[in-house]
Write a structure and sequence with these properties.
This protein is α+β, with helices and mostly antiparallel strands and about 220 residues long. It contains 8 helices and 4 strands. Belongs to the GST superfamily.
Length: about 220
């Protein structure tokens, strides 16, 4: 089997969701860093009408098929690479699980991303160049790239509107609801690990503030 190609921004929790799925299913894969400000090698092969937002996978085992959107990628991987021991969307619960994952993506996933980037921009905006491109440039080039990416992210993710959009309150309310969902349960659905559990674990990662701060500090030191 040829390795599946994962186009990624390594710090993305949506990418974590796909990466963890590949590892859970023990599928070989390679990664390509997504270039926010330019062309990403390999994506020139993707359909012109495909949304170029990470995560994206390319499957060389299936005519180099491209899939974007984390939940759609999980569905694809489960339909093509599953057995009784690692199925994430059991047939009896499939549509219910898909709906749940999409709901988490469009609420918790987006809230956590905005809050995570807000903290990052407050602490060290120039480190965006290291996180997004997965390498460190010295000097003014890295500095200006970081500033440019800050502007793109602020506009695209509406970072400047977090207070007006009540993202803190919405996140707190959703986490309270999710806490009730998991209370007293080993898994969210049935008695087995499913895509819902994996999605929740991946998307909540950015809200672990102490973990995020310690990792950003380490990355910042490494980039100096």
């Amino acid at each position: 089997m040829q390795p599946i190609i994962l186009y990624q921004i390594s710090s993305s929790h949506f990418v974590d969701k796909v990466r963890w799925t590949l590892e859970y299913k023990r599928l070989p894969y390679t990664t390509v860093a997504f270039n926010v400000l330019g062309n990403t090698p390999g994506l020139e092969r993707a359909p012109s009408n495909m949304q170029k937002l990470v995560p994206i996978i390319e499957d060389p085992n299936n005519n180099n098929k491209f899939i974007s959107d984390s939940t759609q990628i999980l569905i694809y991987l489960d339909e093509h690479y599953s057995d009784a021991t690692n199925q994430l969307f059991p047939i009896a619960l499939k549509q219910q699980l898909i709906n749940y994952c999409i709901r988490l993506d469009s609420s918790l996933g987006l809230y956590a991303r905005r809050l995570g980037y807000l903290q990052l921009l407050n602490e060290n905006p120039t480190i965006l160049n290291v996180i997004i491109e997965e390498r460190s440039d010295d000097g003014w080039k890295s500095y200006f790239k970081g500033i440019a990416k800050c502007c793109i992210i602020i506009a695209r993710l509406r970072i400047h509107r977090i207070k007006e959009d009540q993202i803190y309150e919405k996140t707190e309310n959703l986490l309270t609801e999710l806490t009730e969902d998991v209370r007293g349960k080993e898994y969210l659905f049935s008695n087995q690990f499913t895509a819902a559990d994996l999605t929740l674990c991946a998307l909540v990662r950015l809200l672990k503030t102490r973990f995020l701060k310690s990792n950003l500090t380490d990355m910042s030191k490494a980039s100096i």
